[in-house]
## 1
Amino acid sequence: MTKIIALASLLSFSLPALALEIGQPAPDFSGTDIHGKTVKLSDFKGKIVVVESYNSDCPFCHNQYASGAVPELQKDLAAKGVVWLLVDSVNPNNPSFRSAGQAQEEWKRLKINATDWIQDPSGAIGHLYSMKTTPDVYVIGKDGVLDYQGAMDDRPKPFGDPRKAHNYVRAAVDALLQGKPVAVTQTKPYGCGVHYAD
Amino acid sequence: MWAGLCLALVLATPASAAHTRVELKLSANSVRPGQVQSVGFLMTMDPGWHTYWKNSGDSGIPTQIQWNLPPGFSAGPIEWPLPLKLPPASVTTYAYEGTTLLEVPITVASNVASGVYSVSAAVSWLECKDQCIPGSTNFSFDLVVTNEFVPTTQLDLIQSWQSRMPETCSNWLVEASWQTTTNTDQRWLVLHGQYRGPSDTQPRIVDFYPYPGDNYEVETATEVKDGPGSDFTLRKMVTRFQSDWPVRVPGILIEEGIEHGWFLNPQPLGPSALVDDSNQVSSGSIQSVDPANISAPPLRFSPGRMILYAFIGGLILNVMPCVLPVIALKILGFVREGGSDRRHIRLLGLAYVAGVLASFLALASMVVGVKAAGHQAGWGMQFGNPVFVVGLATLVTLVALNLFGVFEVSLGGHAMDAAGALSARRGFAGAFFNGVLATTLATPCTAPFLAPALGFAFAQGSGIIFLAFFSTGVGLALPYFLLSWQPAWVSFLPKPGAWMEKFKIAMGFPMLATVVWLLYIASATYGRGVAWVGCFLVVVSFAAWIFGAFFQRGSKARSLSLGLAFAFLILGYFGILEDALHWRSVPGDKEPAASNINSPLDWKPWSLEAIAQAQASGRPVLVDFTADWCLTCQVNKKTSIEIPSVINEMKLVQGVALVADDTAFPVRITEELQRFGRAGVPLVLVYPGHPGANPLILPEILTPSLVLDALKKATQFGNDLNKSTSAAVQ
């Protein structure tokens, strides 16, 4: 009897829409970059694209850049034709919000080597990709399929040298470039919560 | 070069966290070797700021504590109070706001010498509001090891946070199952719980907070369906990361209002929405239960069967080692009163029954009271109170001296007055008192049948508790009641005569043996200070002799003798118990030293973590739930555990021996006993050396072959499971 009740109550659960799925096409998005230009994911069809949720006030993000680890990685991957997009979903009322001018200044100061920085103050892109933390990283293959989602590396610390950690993004991109299957396709991202508007 | 160094320094010491203050709280100024020093880190966050639980949820990092401890000291895992679940829905976290206290038990090995030891702890955390800042504080402090436990004034604060910790024993019977989704790396974890608690409350389960998993993540969102009553069904999405599905998904069931959380370690079945509950195996006298069903006792009784078991348990109590000394008293009582008429003997029998039943009802009231006050209650709990133990030791000493004839128990002055009409009254009072004494001494023994019956009763409402205790009392009293009712049986006893005086004196010696045993129990609290209790007993005995020889039987200076006897009593009490021993300022409910220092089995203190750790490395675990006051436990250990064959078998299977000491009645161990449906020790478990495998539960009275069989079974279980796993892989 209890089983039937349990079963019946389960059937009446509402099924929520599932988030992104590894091996499925990554949804297209469109946003404005810090120079006022409209950027779309589909602009980079045929290329490997790294999407990173970004907020350099978050100590975990900040350490990746201030230590030089991620700018170096971005430079290495750019040389191999890989696109790296920063998505900044911090809401305008948060102290960590960056205006276009502030963002351009930060780009220079932190020696960022990404392809572009997309402003997402409404959180539309962040919510579409279910970005939870900064950083939270997505690797999309040349075929537009999601190949990796999760943490930047296996060292969830806001200090020290991230180069000593195993970087999941580098590993995923290297595997894709060599035509091999990506070994680690999903991890739990770590860091500060994304400061969404809602 | 300089710039690089500066940068490194800045990176190594992150921005100082201005929004969280951490204070150190110690439970004791000094502890004895083998004891636990609780270290509390009281974290106070500014309004709006929060720090994180052991599973931080969608973002954040759990607070970490790095220890630097001298050899012989070991830090247990952090004990986390129940966290809050903080919005927004898109990034939900488990965190603390306001204040929280993270408690770490530091165990001092039993071979650590007295002295002052410096230790340090580095606490690091992430605090967030609309921004996140990492913070850290270093604490360097001294831990003092002496021969006594001296609590601090902060002990109360640390203990007050115990009520915010998850409880291991719950009122829900929970079935867990997997439900598949279209994504091969995502499944629903479905928990269906049936309420088994008291019917006067209707609590509501609103959430399940999962512990962090290595290769999986349980999403923060929860769907809950209520009813009927307090029953619930909830589900949460689980994502696996390049690995098998977890065998167990531990976490905390959260009651509405987050006042209570219940630890749960479910082993989901499936994947399918159907739940199979046919995995309860019972073979011979060894039962296997699933601890995932943390709520209900493994044996489910009808109240009628429980009462029958309680009654049979009470009957068996008569021949348990703790009650045997009292039997001597009772036999003597029948012989002494043998000359009286039949009606008189029957009345004495009734007085004895009344004494037993009154004591059992008093015990039941105590249990109900303690439960009503929100604490855990258990069989034999009063033996965890050293004041009670010393009081009982004094009483039993006086009984022995009385049997030796040192003094008389009489209301009048002269021993001669005890004859005649007064003797009848003394007889009734004595019989009643025998009943009380029999019950008091019976509590440290858990007889077969009694354990499951009381274990069941303790989880029920007040009425059932009273009924169970009453039935046990009837069982304990029945044989002597029948003896008093059947004159034919009484006539089997020898005629009264001069031999009675000798027999009476002989029966004083079991009483003295009981005193030795009580002193041994008290030594768990007082250590070597128990010698002061011995001194006190000598002074009391001397005072009793003065009272008997010069007041009761003397003819001159009787009032001087009486005054002298009282003077010795007062001197003994204040000079020895109060002044030298400080007998009432005893430690709280910390677990005392496991008295297994020189044991060949290398006993380690029990904890769920220790079991999990041993199982993870493939080693079977033998757990002995014991107490110094539990004679059945000591007998079990000597006859069936610490014997060469078992020691060899343990070596062979690389078994880990864990001891859970219930002497001072610590909450965690009591809760674990209840989880297995026991109201008290003894309880011996054998866990197979396979992660998450359920233990075999051994009966109350052990034999070597029972223990050896269980160890063999536990080893085979592991092998079978390994085989089937590898077969599945192929």
## 2
Amino acid sequence: MSHTFDEISQQLKRRHRKSSRLKWITMGSLGLAGLFLVLFFADMLTKGLPAFQQAYVQTEISYNEEAETDGRQAFDEELLPIISRTVVRVIPMELRNNPDMIGTSEEQWVLANSEVDQYLKGHRNSLSAEEQAAIDERVEAGQVDMRFNTTFFTNGDSKIAENAGILAAVVGTVMTMIVTLAIAFPIGVMTAVYLEEFAPDNRFTQIIEININNLAAIPSILFGLLGLAIFINFFGVPRSSPLAGGMTLALMTLPVIIISTRTALRSVPDSIRHAAFGVGCSRWQVVRDHVLPLAMPGIMTGSIIGLAQAMGETAPLIIVGMVAFIPDVGASFTNAATVMPAQIFTWSGEPEQAFVEKTAGGILVLLTILISLNAFAVVLRKKFERRW
Amino acid sequence: MNSHATVMNGQQTPAVGQPYTRNNAACHDVSFRVRDLNLWYGKNQALSGLNIDLFQKNVTALIGPSGCGKSTFLRCLNRMNDLIPSVRLEGLVEMDGRDVNASKMDEVALRRRVGMVFQKPNPFPKSIYENIAYAPRMHDLVSRKAEQDELVEKALRDAGLWNEVKDKLQEPGTSLSGGQQQRLCIARAIAVQPDVILMDEPTSALDPISTATIEDLMDKLKDQFTIITVTHNMQQAARVADYTAFFHLGEIIEYNDTKVMFSTPAQKKTEDYISGRYG
Amino acid sequence: MQTNQLLLIFCGALLLLGLLAFFAGRSKATRLRSAGTAMFAQPDQYAWFTVLSTAGPAILVGAVGAFILLLLGADIPTLYLLAASLVVAAIGLVVSLNQVRPDFHARQAIERVIRKILAGAALISIFTTFGILFSIISEALRFFQMHSFWDFITGTTWNPGASFLASAGRGDGSGAEFGSVPLFAGTFMITAIAMLVAVPIGLLSAIYMSEYAPRSVRTVAKPVLEVLAGIPTVVYGFFAAITVAPIIVNIAGFFGLDASYNNALAPGIVMGIMIIPFISSLSDDVINSVPDSMRQGSLALGMTKGETIRDVVVPAALPGIISASLLGMSRALGETMIVVMAAGMRPNLTANPLEDMTTVTVRIVAALTGDQEFASAETLSAFALGLVLFIVTLALNLVSVLMIRRFREKYRANNL
């Protein structure tokens, strides 16, 4: 009837093998997920890092009179296919503004054409073999060089790849986020305070709760439809503006802020409330003077995470028109603007190889900001974390 | 010291291997031999210098105030303490002539022979039938469906549950009452045909009637299995146990025939405890 | 910017009135108190009461007036509206100053108002849901007036091209077809691929983290997985289109298969990667809240750890795992950027994941980013698609919430 240890162990061998197989499979799955992450970042870095380098050409600019009408006349003809069109384009204007420059000449490092840039980075390009040889010669002579790409951080969008930058999108993102936070933070915190501290536990409150949880899971694109139909078509908020985008994102961020604020409020122990009630505070005074200050770190953490989420959101912004071509930094909340993810989306649609690099570069900038924000939130939480 | 009983005492070195006899009756076979067992949770010593022989086909009760180490000791017998990372253990626990803590000992094989019933009934989230059939099937104890049905019925009958559940075998195990759930857990344990069944305060979460049912069950099951039970309840120990060990602060103060222990305790501490002075 | 200046003047005037109210209210209350009268509240509370009753009604009148006028479709006579609210503010000031009396419960009055304001904020989330529903349904109804609902649900050809001619006054738009079946087929195909990636990897990772991993691995692995959820979808879209799709085309080519660069596999796989943390994180929580007594019960029967996990822990956590998967699925159905960037534009009813196919969200974006008139059938079709998307995701979310609630009740786990 009863088995000895050896008999049982014999039978167990197979089962132990199966058991450890499960362990390895689960471990492998986690490893696979980690591997995806590593591959992803490696891919983005290899594609995006070159965007922060840009080829420059040493050239002599002779400000002659023909150049006042045709910028090309200021350059050596051999150089024209190499340098960027934007450099050529600004010459006449410059001369018109400073007429006494005519007749002078100067040595300058100017932006190279994106094809040259791509060739030097070893990417696909449309240069012929001769042109490539000519560039190689100039590189040997030290007349073509790779430098840190400041244009990328100081310019807005451009159809000319080497002139395109992310600044307009960054400013647009900041403006949109200001609108988003200005709306979502107070309303979110107020809602959470109401639900957690004031609301009676009745049907109405339950409906609000279910509704908030549901809002958090609604596809973001539907918020875009709301923004388009209500904010833009009904209230007449200007299309493509940070105001329209910010309002739309605010509604999306609202549930995130509400849920995290409620968690933060709930983690303040009731003993604090009772103590405050005990010294004669009214409910509102208890919340304002005791509960909210204690919950603030948690609320801030949640809001930052919500902000980071909103910052990476694209779909609803496309619907409210924030994919416009924006070469200049936006001036007001009602002017057309673009945001970083939308800029990335626009660039990704450009056929030129140089824009692939720009896209990945933009992605790196966006990811850096998002990771910093999240890291900041984590630090904030760690620093103020309190066990009651 | 009594002439016909070895009183095992933490302070005194016991007579190792000396057979325990009761009323000059035949010797019982030893199920577990425990020698110099020490156990630490991190830095806290929970068991110190335990020496005890547990006998086959008997009910042995481990009693003592809470925190005295009786549950910890019970869990040494089927190495459930392995699940707690901070536990460190020294000494010998021997079953069937084998050190259960040896590196060559497979704890799964050990647990297959030493079943356990827990304080709170913990049926699996499966049907009543599956709760019982699951383990024997995994252990290859049954090969055909008919055999399996037969085994389930036998286990449920042995646990005294068959008449109550025979019409609802496919219902979830959690749908039963607390006492029924605990008997289901006992049925589940005996279905794998172990040698020993450990019971960790099996009735502490139950009502008096369910408790009585389970006590009767223990009495019946001791013909087939060695039963070692931890209990808070001295009356229960007096009612069901053949032998009783009294634990205090991680040591075995006294170990004796239950009747002897409760009528003429050898140690002052035991007397104080069973007369309700602390605990 | 006439309106802007008016608004600025209005805000300035309101601010001045508010300040006036504050100081007038406080000085009156202080005077009363220094005269020796016992009062129900502090002077500051009277001051805030007067401020609230000055600004509150005025802003309310302004906002409600503007809203009603917008609703009626009339031009807002901004000047009159703002003037009216200022008058209301002045009245509020006078009335509330009059209320500064010793027997008036200023604090309670303030708190009643604050409570109302907080409740009002809580209503915004309800309004948002209604806003989404209202905007989608009303536009979708306009669409269904132009094209039959039945054709929309059962039609297998999506060809909105001709509708824009109709709205431009050329042709009658009869050539346009809005059969959404191929769009939904594409959506479900890509979602299915995503779930095939996300559910096994997410669940198995969760099992590793909660059952096997040492503490140190767990504290690192969890946030690292969360990073996957924090990456913006537009970035995933780029990754899918530029990196993954060509790899798939190459692999397919190696096996002699013909794959499109807009194949459904690339967005599906990348979407799956994106959803992994949603599933792993919730499953991890659920597995952790399966009571330890279950595991011990199984181990005590002589089960191996693997058998315990497979046959006891996972079945016990199943409702939570299903709920997590449903949430992940709803996320995949509504995901937009990955498919916009990596999936095709061509409505294609096929079972071959190597072909290009389009999805509901792609068509919504396509319909709303063109230069169409808003009232054209193509633009409105976006709202009809949005309506279906809303209903499907809502159903998935509700089922998921119900399942997790049942799980929580069963094991009294409070951390979910």
